[in-house]
Specification:
By secondary structure, the protein is an alpha+beta fold. It folds into two domains: about 1-145, no CATH class; about 155-415, no CATH class. The protein has helices at about 1-5, 10-55, 60-75, 170-175, 190-200, 240-250, 270-275, 290, 295-300, 300-305; strands at about 85, 90-95, 100-105, 115-125, 135-145, 155-160, 180-185, 230-235, 260, 265, 280, 315-320, 330-335, 355-370, 385-390, 415. Helix 2 crosses helix 3 and helix 5 (about 190-200) runs parallel beside helix 6.
Length: about 425
């Protein structure tokens, strides 16, 4: 008996078997856990994209839920073929096996917030030996929608491509140059006056390339301004100096101005509009040229725009959250071409006579430098050009989407948490 108990032959084989089982189980768990992390990354992207898409439709909760689901299914085709169930401000899209997309269109009671939760059941492979047949992966995103501001609207003038000089008065006066009067809204002197005073509010987009082919950035072909969005507008054939001056008088009739002359005149400086010292474009961070989608045939060379000696219009760069988006000094000027098939690399052409169609090929966001005093109305009016970085917001915290910047700026929606 003593010899039997003292006999250690075969004990190493037992330990090898035990350790081998442990190693196999650990490897199985590692493989399946790695797969779960991969699934989580994919599901997080699905939740993010679905949330950012759906929140744009708020406060229409039903449309927001349906669009969020459509994006989820587009990125997760394995669950396609089912229908969404909507109850109040929430929606569920499930395949009956545990895979589910859940949406709250008014998350936390906020009509501008959305939550998207993606739940996916992932079958295990090796972990089954440990009794683990599946892993539940849950990822969610919360996003926020805000009305986008683009300053005080589009001015009824257009600049030809290639280094506009910023002379607003010449545009209205139909002086031979690289700009002229336009009528994206209604025609006539009174309509022009009101457009100068209030800015034209609308969904204006640019178009490059053949007029019958969708722009690669916007997805739209050329559309006259009787529809929305639009990128083709008529010119005003006459001299619009009279309604231009009347419109400016109304535009700067601003009793709430920081600086007031004779009790009503707005004379906000550029620093006041920006809420900070104005920085020239030459001080912008490296990479700004590419981020803005800069094209020489649209704006002239980047080096010329950075130069302090740029004729008339100076170029500035802003990337903060102190912008006075309601200042009447802030506006948008479209860059236009009579060539309806204009594309990057084409020439600017000349300003046409009569009432002609002009295609929007780009935009400038401007600060109206003059009039400095009431007496300046009726004389030369110059503007400076402002380029915006990705963190530009109004002082109120609202998103600011300058029409004149083609680069990656705020779109009015943010991921709050993911």
């Amino acid at each position: 008996m003593r010899q039997l108990f003292d006999d250690e032959r075969g004990i190493s084989a037992i330990w090898v078997a035990v350790v081998a089982l442990f190693l196999v189980a650990s490897a199985a768990l590692a493989v399946d856990t790695s797969g779960a992390f991969g699934t989580a990354q994919t599901d997080q992207t699905t939740a993010d994209l679905s949330c950012l898409a759906g929140v744009n439709e708020l406060p229409d909760t039903s449309a927001g839920i349906n669009l969020a689901v459509a994006y989820a299914v587009e990125n997760w085709p394995e669950v396609a073929g089912n229908s969404v169930s909507i109850s109040g401000t929430t929606g569920t899209y499930a395949d009956g096996t545990g895979n589910e997309v859940y949406i709250e269109a008014e998350h936390d009671g906020d009509p501008s917030k959305m939550l998207v939760r993606v739940t996916e059941i992932q079958e295990t492979w090796f972990a089954k030996v440990m009794g683990q047949d599946e892993i539940t992966v849950v990822q969610e995103a919360i996003c926020f929608h805000q009305e986008v501001r683009n300053g005080t609207g589009l001015l009824p003038i257009g600049a030809l491509a290639g280094s506009w000089n910023g002379d607003l008065f010449d545009c209205a006066a139909k002086v031979t140059g690289n700009c002229g009067a336009m009528s994206p809204g209604s025609n006539g002197a009174n309509a022009y006056r009101d457009a100068v005073a209030n800015g034209i509010v609308g969904d204006f987009i640019k178009h490059h390339g053949n007029q019958n082919i969708a722009d690669p950035d916007t997805g739209f072909a050329t559309i006259d301004c009787f529809a929305s969005p639009c990128n083709v507008s008529e010119t005003e054939p006459g001299n619009m100096v009279g309604p231009w001056n009347q419109g400016l008088s109304i535009r700067f009739d601003d009793p709430g101005a920081v600086c007031v002359e004779d009790g009503w005149f707005n004379c906000d400086s550029l620093d006041q509009v920006l809420g900070a010292a104005a920085n020239p474009l030459s001080s912008a961070p490296a990479g700004t040229e590419a981020a803005l989608g800069w094209h020489n045939t649209l704006y002239g060379t980047y080096a010329a725009a950075q130069a302090a000696s740029h004729p008339n219009a100076q170029h500035y760069f802003f990337n903060g959250g102190t912008l006075d988006c309601d200042s009447p000094r802030l506006a948008t000027v479209p860059i236009v071409a009579q060539n309806q098939n204009w594309d990057i690399g084409d020439g600017s052409g000349s300003w046409p006579n009569g009432r002609k169609d002009m295609k929007f090929i780009g935009f400038y966001t401007i600060y109206i430098r003059e009039p400095n005093t009431i007496a300046d109305i009726g004389g030369p009016i110059d503007a400076d050009i402002i380029w915006f970085g990705p963190d530009s917001k109004c002082i109120t915290g609202e998103a600011f989407q300058p029409i004149g910047s083609l680069g990656p700026v705020n779109q009015g929606v943010w991921l709050v948490d993911s």
